[in-house]
Amino acid sequence: MSTKVRTADTRERILTAACEAIAEIGFEKIRMRMVAERAGVSTALLHYHFDTREKLFTEAMTHSFANTATDVERDAGTAPAAVILARIVRNLLPTDPELHQDWRLWQELWVRALRDEATRTYAVDLYAQLHTWVADAVRRGIASGEFEPTDVDGLCTLVLSLSDGYGIRLMLRDPAVTLDSALASIWRHVSTALGLTDGIPEE
Questions:
Q1: In terms of domains, do 64 and 31 share one?
Q2: Domain closes at, from 15, 31, 51
Q3: Buried b (16+ CB within 10 A) or exposed e, 83-115
Q4: Given Cys at both, which of 13, 72, 79, 169 links 177, Cβ 3.0 to 4.6 Å?
Q5: pLDDT digit string (tens) for 41-61?
Q6: Cβ neighbours of residue 101 under 8 Å, at least 6 residues apart?
Q7: Which of 51, 69, 90 corresponds to the end of one domain?
Q8: Which residues span the domain enclosing 16?
């Protein structure tokens, strides 16, 4: 195994461990030693890759987002745009254990962003990436004729806002909101804007 591959593997293990630890106990309680132990590396090696907790946190958030985006876009060149868009909507909510962990990371990010300007800027940038992610799927469908033309930016802002609102209530286990009702509500707005008549597509 080359040095480059070993380095990439080590970073992957560290970032995966960081995501798990932050989601489990919260960023404020996290210590670099905890992440190193969970990743199976020395503290010195962890500091070699990530010299501060803050850098580790932002890299973990980026890692989490990138993994989700890669999974969603795996067949974007061949799958109908509505299927890709529905997949994105599902991935914007805590629909499985992995996304539940991602949502815990997002909640940690929001709390830090209220107190730290650098984190606030980073959070805004991540939202811009999410916006682009949704917008690209919508524009792809409009270009192919699957979707009716619409205010793409307005729709993306609405989808992200609804996902945040419903996602928080799902994380709180609010009995008034279920995953099915949240998905149906978001997709109803999407369908109206894009001229779709069927329900949310299945995989």
A1: no
A2: 51
A3: bbbbbbbbbbbbbeeebebbbbbbebbeebbee
A4: 169
A5: 999 998 888 888 888 888 888
A6: 19, 20, 23, 64
A7: 51
A8: 1-51
